[in-house]
Amino acid sequence: MITINYPTPTFKIKDEQGKEAIFDECRKLWVLLTPEEWVRQNFLQYLMQVKKYPCSLIAVEREITLGDTKKRFDIVVFKNAAPWMIVECKEMNVELSEAVIKQILNYNIALQVEYLVITNGKSTFGLYIQQGKFEWLDELPDF
Prior knowledge:
This protein is of the alpha+beta class. It is built from two helices and nine strands, in the order βββαβββαβββ.
């Protein structure tokens, strides 16, 4: 498991028609503040503030095609103009199960990254993939 020390939140949050919205710095837009979005926004801040990943190289909630199916990944970090890391976020009360690992492995069929990360905000696990072999991570790589 990877220990994440989240930075102190400085989020912009507003009320939109009786529901809370949070400003996503990477997407440059307001999004509905769901439990999963809370995890995603905190993890994005960790990547940018602590690990120094450039926001300009982070894609958030974009569509990919897996065979005949369209899916949306949570976070993909690019490096050297190619996908480098996939992060799958779940809300805090969702267990990081084998199903979540299968989900991110399916995304990787299309994206072919070096790093896979799953998080629910409380627990975070990461894998480094090299030559078809998987290695569990103790921490996320610096950019």
